[in-house]
Amino acid sequence: MARALVNVPAKAKRGAVIEIKALISHPMETGYRHDESGHVYPRDIINRFVCTYNGVVVFQADLFPAVAANPFLSFFTVATESGVLALSWTGDDGRTQVETANITVE
Amino acid sequence: MSFDRGGTGRIIPGAGKLLRAHHGIRGGAVAAVLWLAAALAAAAAMAAEIAPGERRSGYELLSRETKAMQDDDTANPGTLWVLDGEALWGQKAGSAERSCADCHGDATTSMKGVAARYPAFDAARRRPVDLEQRINVCRTERQKAPPLAPESKELLALTAYVARQSRGMPISIAIDRMVEFVEAGRSLFHRRQGQLNLSCSQCHDDNWGKLLAGSVVPQGHPTGYPLYRLEWQTLGSLQRRLRNCMIGMRAEPYEYGAPENVALELYMMWRARGLAVETPAVRP
Fold first, then answer.
1. 0.90 exceeded by pTM
2. How far is CA B233 from the centre of its chain?
3. What is the DSSP letter of A69?
4. CATH node for B77-164
5. Nearest-CA residue of chain B relative to A23?
6. pLDDT (tens digit, 9 = 90+) per residue, B80-136?
7. Could you tell me the residue ranges of all domains in chain B?
8. Range of A77's domain?
9. Domain count, chain A
10. Are A3 and B234 an interchain contact pair (Cβ–Cβ within 8 Å)?
11. ipTM of the assembly?
12. Which of A93, A98, B100, B258 has its CA 20 to 30 A from that of A52?
């Protein structure tokens, strides 16, 4: 499992705009680089990121080889109700990593 | 009167008598006069070392966005290595079956301030060792484990975790037993090298704050190593940065762990004394 850092406010007022920050450790190998003997390093990137808020998708992104290693995404949503934010990263190898964070809406 | 090329900023007690011999006058009187003239011209062309009140961390030259990235632990990619280092700290390694924590306990207290005083003198080796070398000494001698490779993820993670415990503390190198090594580093810092015939000092003492291509030249204070360089897209050590600069000067870079690299690190940390440790810093 790659190491990921998720920053979601623990508490928010109902209707407030909250910022969510997500950082994950990943080489984002483009598939265009090669070693001294010409062998290409195979492409290995995270190509999909989805954030759901109590099951509803609030943000999603497709990622491409031009995105730097250790991608950092920051986005906003409206705090509607207490619950769980689930952030998932899917790689070229088909594996998905999910991190969750709880939020209390008052 | 000093004929050294180090400028006027020298403060090392007793340093004046060191490393002066190799500047000795060779050949006859004519050669001596020519040499003296050249030395004076060189001294006049070179600005003094940066005064203590003028010293600035490279942080102050960063863009607003890069500063924000460094300041927020959850946006700073260096945190990924710090957390890896925290995990490694508690992991048993080597035939001694010991972890760092088994000897040093809680790093948040035992490692506090350590990075601010490295490179430090190693009595057994009779030379300074930097933080990475110190960690590898512990690995080979205490844990009986193979040393970690330079720039390996594990070594960078452990170094970042140890150095993170000194964040905010002023850099303070005890040079009393290392004066000759500081002087060796100073001489390397001021020596012109490579096909571009440049010294470190010409950029980082004389022209800091100006632009080299599109980038601002910093004063070159190693306050935040190992740091996350956006260009590298990874964490890297001060030695990697030094090798980068040397390649830029089209000089032959010193090997990882070479005495020249450690002397340069030592001189640069001494030169940055008083500035706060920022590990893990973010730089463009």
1. no
2. 20
3. S
4. 1.10.760.10
5. B75
6. 999 999 999 999 999 999 999 999 999 999 999 999 999 999 999 999 999 999 999
7. 1-40, 77-164
8. 4-31+40-105
9. 1
10. no
11. 0.91
12. A93
